[in-house]
Amino acid sequence: MAFWGTELLAGEPVTYVFKKSQGRLRICKATLGVGLAEGRSVVQCKIGDKSPILLCSLRPYNNETCSVDIEFKEEEKVIFEAIGPTTTSVHLAGFYLTNNADGQSDSNEVKKAEDDEARVNGRVKTFPSGLIIEDLEKSQHSSTMIASPGSMVSVSYVGKLKFTGYIFESRNSSSPFYFRLGTDAVIAGLEIGITGMRVGDKRKITIPPSMAYGPQGRKNVPPESWVEYTIKLLSISNSVPPLFSDEQGSNVEVD
Description:
This is peptidylprolyl isomerase. By secondary structure, this protein is mainly β.
């Protein structure tokens, strides 16, 4: 997965054409650029021979950024254009979704293969690899968004060694951990365990060494250790959080 971005100047359309080596394009955010702001800027896109579609409207000092979630198919040629003052610009940001030979993302393929082989017993799902996902709490949140590859998520968590209960890391809801699913930002067991969660869901994820820290281990985690994470999903979005932090949290239980 690679970052994509472009700057739209009023009256100067930008054309996007799919390239197999890059993957499909997914746009996450539109933001007003630096310049003398005079009025509203509207971003539109024209897909193939279809009529233009308005993506968002931006206004200085009021609504200068807008989160969007648009993924373009491989065969589509797209023309982006900013309509508004010539003294400012609009920046579009997103990323490429890498495809495998079947046209599906690698992360989705791994998740599908795991799900096909998993045993389900009530709220507990057990995989042949030894990975165990247990639903502790189901969200009462009205949102229908589900964490999936490409989603920016924030979580609170407690990470323990399975056989001793030693807490080697944790984050609470006042200092959550932000990351994007499908980018190898976390260990494989967490990628699979968090995928499919909704905001407010809480899970316990038991992870074998092969999907955790392996023979090398990490700080406070010996080599070939089984680990357990109690995870609560706090948010899902498709844009970078306002403040990204990877500082170690305090050793407290998930809220």
